[in-house]
Amino acid sequence: MLADKRIFFLGAGSMSEAMLKGLLATATLPPDRIVLCNRQHLARLHELRDGYGIIPSRDKLADIATADIVILAVKPFDVTRALAEVHDALSADQLLISVAAGVATAAIEALIPAGIPVVRAMPNTSSFVQESATAICGGRWAMPEALEIARQLFAAIGTVVAVDEGAMDAVTGLSGSGPAYIYYVAEALLAAGEAVGLPEETSRELLIQTLYGAARMLRETGKGPGELRRQVTSPNGTTMAGIAALDDAEVAAALRRAVARATERAREMGVQLSQR
């Protein structure tokens, strides 16, 4: 379904590069069917051309007009300007996929010609190593075929789930911001390892493998985190002592608050964007 498509990336930031890397690494598309533009920073386009063999846009409107799929990969508060600049090059036989956080499909549809299918996606930064957790949802004119094309695209950079648009703020709060929570915990654990006497490099090597192994256990055993935790928590043992310290500090409650606050902030941003 994707092999014969031509893709235009409107924006050349880190998410565009992550998607590029995944699409090319999985041979989902050849580089000569991918075109990028960037409003500024011509050097960035040359960097991506040299690194991936893709085509920097020479005529944005003409290149968009010949694309099958347009990826809207600009900052949320730049969406209105970016779509206004390319409005006349868009048509109903194209698919527009947005990775702009917090921007509803209806808001995008209001800025482009009627009838263009819009799919909204929320990947995360792990997309750069092809391990993103991406949620997608369709707008008013997005038929199942459009969602399937989007699913195939994001499958090149990790796992994809389809959700109702009403759940997208919660997705942002959990998996969109999720890598930062894990890095926050990892940062604290590294410091804790050093505090109890481990050399920095030893602490780092052990922790990274521990995180990786735990994630694989969750994925490959199919068991819930609570069950896996109980399996390694012997009565009156070291793990139980450590978990008790986490419970005393209400770490689980703090993580729930983090996801709730990030979800709330995503909703706030959506409101702010709709009022611009």
In helices, the fraction of residues equals 40-55%
Unreliable stretches: none
CATH class category label of the largest domain: Alpha Beta
Strand content: 5-15%
Shape: elongated
The radius of gyration over CA amounts to 21 Å
According to CATH, what is the topology of the largest domain? Answer: Rossmann fold
Write down the domain tally: 2
Structural class: alpha/beta
Compute the average pLDDT.
94
CATH superfamily of the largest domain: NAD(P)-binding Rossmann-like Domain
End-to-end C-alpha gap: 37 Å
What is the helix/strand order?
A: EHEHEHEHEHEEHEHHHHHH
Largest sheet: 8 strands, mixed
Compact description:
With 276 residues, the protein is α/β, with parallel strands linked by helices. The protein has helices at 14-25, 42-52, 60-65, 79-86, 105-109, 144-155, 168-176, 178-195, 200-221, 225-231, 238-248, 251-274, and strands at residues 7-10, 34-37, 55-56, 69-72, 95-98, 118-122, 132-138, 158-162. Strands 3-2-1-4-5-6-7-8 form an eight-stranded mixed beta sheet.
What's the helix and strand layout?
Elements: E1 7-10, H1 14-25, E2 34-37, H2 42-52, E3 55-56, H3 60-65, E4 69-72, H4 79-86, E5 95-98, H5 105-109, E6 118-122, E7 132-138, H6 144-155, E8 158-162, H7 168-176, H8 178-195, H9 200-221, H10 225-231, H11 238-248, H12 251-274
Parallel strand pairs: 1-2, 1-4, 2-3, 4-5, 5-6, 7-8
Antiparallel strand pairs: 6-7
Can you characterise this structure?
By secondary structure, the protein is an alpha/beta fold. It has 2 domains: 7-165, Rossmann fold, CATH 3.40.50.720; 178-263, ProC C-terminal domain-like fold, CATH 1.10.3730.10. It contains 12 helices and 8 strands. The protein has helices at 14-25, 42-52, 60-65, 79-86, 105-109, 144-155, 168-176, 178-195, 200-221, 225-231, 238-248, 251-274, and strands at 7-10, 34-37, 55-56, 69-72, 95-98, 118-122, 132-138, 158-162. Helix 7 (168-176) packs across helix 12 (251-274) and helix 8 (178-195) crosses helix 9 (200-221). The radius of gyration is 21 Å and the shape is elongated. The two termini are 37 Å apart. The mean pLDDT is 94.
